[in-house]
Amino acid sequence: MKKLAVITGASSGIGEAIAKRFSEAGHPLLLIARRIERLEALNLPNTICAKVDVTDAESFKNAITEAEAVYGPTDCIVNNAGIMLLGQVDVQDPAEFKAMFDVNVLGLLTGMQAVLAPMKARREGTIINISSVAGRKGFDDHGAYCGTKFAVHAISENVRKEVASSNVRVITIAPGAVETELLNHTTSKDIVDGYEEWKESIGGAIESDDIARAVTYAYQQPQNVCIREIVIAATRQEP
């Protein structure tokens, strides 16, 4: 059996697609999400499903410890859990700012912290953080969301530099528009409708499995090869 992979936000979209790809490659899995019934419905072999909110650091770390007791040390964690609440900063509910930073940034940091020290000690391991093109440039109605994804880029690159001498890899994946449930979190109908019209204008968004293939490609490189960042979007997506 291959080494343990941990995937957050695995109940749908990109996380689900990544879980399927890692399972097909023979890895035991710890799948983390709030909707455990969706995880269990995937029916993947050698898989532990944990109902965990990544904002609950203790539960998150405990789930990893319990999975490692069964399958051995985490060789790869994919910090994929995220929410996108679009809006103009002057009118957006501040609770939405906090929700995005709690999940997209603090949840990601918790996942990294849970596995980093053992990876450094073993001189082996890979952290893959799912960011966004919105972590590299601004978009209308994305102010707070862009802030979280710029943070993901900054954290990932900074930690990558810190752990490079320990032979641990940190990889950032920056998708453009992807057909997932992410847009459903946004409460403004006008923003959602405008986003959908934009997707149509570029011939549609890419699929979750397009991101999953990029993730597995980066991970399957030899440990001494770190693909630091992959930006992947529809060919017709200009920004």
Give structural attributes:
single chain, 239 residues, alpha/beta, seven-stranded parallel β-sheet, 7 strands, globular
Q: Poorly predicted ranges (pLDDT <50, ≥5 residues)? A: none
Structural class: alpha/beta
Write the H/E string, N to C.
Answer: EHEHEHEHEHEHHE
Annotation, overall tally of beta strands: 7
Main sheet makeup: 7 strands, parallel
Q: Explain this structure to me?
A:
The chain has 239 residues and is α/β, with parallel strands linked by helices. Helices cover 46% and strands 15% of the residues. The protein contains seven helices and seven strands; from the N terminus they run βαβαβαβαβαβααβ. The chain has a seven-stranded parallel beta sheet, with helices on both faces. Strand 5, helix 5 and strand 6 form a beta-alpha-beta unit. Helix 1 crosses helix 7, helix 3 (57-71) packs parallel to helix 4 (94-122) and helix 4 (94-122) runs parallel beside helix 5 (143-163). The protein is globular, with a radius of gyration of 17 Å. The model has no long low-confidence stretch (mean pLDDT 96).
